Amino acid sequence: MTAVTHPSLPLAGITVVALEQAVAAPLATRHLADLGARVIKIERVGEGDFARHYDGAVHGMASHFVWLNRGKESVALDLKSAEGVAVVRTLVAGADVFLQNFAPGAVARLGLDGETLRAADPRLVVVNMSGYGASGPRRDRKAYDMLIQAETGLVSVTGTPETATKTGVPASDIAAGLYATNSVLAALFRRERTGEGATVEVSMFDATAEWLGHQMYMQMYAGRQVPRMGLSHAAIAPYDAYPTRDGQVLIGVQNDRGWQDLVTGVFDRPDLADHPRLRTNVLRVENRVECDAVVATETRTWTTAELDARLAEAGVPAAQLNDMRGLIEHPQLSARDRWRDVGTPVGPVRAILPPMTFTDVELAMGDVPALGEHTAAVLSEFGYGDEAIDDLVARGAVGLAPTK
Fold first, then answer.
1. Active-site residue 173, yes or no?
2. Which is the catalytic residue, given 34, 49, 96, 173?
3. N or C: which end of the chain has fewer CB within 10 A?
4. What CATH class has 15-212+336-399?
């Protein structure tokens, strides 16, 4: 079984039961596991979370699954069987949190809806995750990340002027997962004060819409669709990648003081500080082509390393345009000792520490489970004898991890 949680971890002693698959819900519960919660992940017998099969990039395991499921205990159940559902009810009866992202209405048909579960245990925190929410005209539509990005209009502001593009990471899944994590923490905190649990709904659509606040306000109150700008920014200039003698550097000037720092402290061009068409951000945005041309003319005179050093010294925001190899080899990660090894059924793999850094305790980074790895141990803990477990296995209601 998963190692006992360090008592200093924030969620030590909290048990989460999750009916989850894909990205959004597993991300939420992985953060809870990192924070010290015990997470019991319910998976399909024989198949498991379908994210297990997206690819085989990590020594035969799927990269998404390795990313999202460390620190969890895998219990394989057939929820089409009454026995499998009964096991879930038993596990939830000993849990603090029940989180699920099945299709709307599915858990209610199983008798695992929030109203039913909290009638038995009012302290239980139930989080229901979905694509569009439990009501509305799109309630029953399938809702993968790309579809939500399109439906919310996120792709209308992402990409180049010529091509709408979804984000390179599953932004709608991640948004929903993070809001679900926050909801659990808030509900547990309230429970400490009131003794009452909660039923919370988090949808990918709502979470993504929240992230589009700036763009929505521009449309509602200025009558403007924020255009797709590539690396640039619709409301700020200069804000883009600019050429150097041997590459490029990203520069982002947020205000007029930053413009003065750029042209005087970096370019040695104080005459540009009060340029009649470039002296304010509003003017620079209106004259973006000229602004970008002026900046590019100056940046071309230095190598990337020289310009990066000058920008840093002047306090002008700038960055390198890295790929994934650049991230993996980034000195910021190595200098801050952010890499750890995580156990998996195929051996240790590298992983980055969670972004929430507590000064008194390192967050948990438990093993990635094999499908059904913890079925027998968890069922034994919750009162099932060996004969009962063998009978459930024989009838296909539960599944065990393959023996090596």
1. yes
2. 173
3. C
4. alpha beta
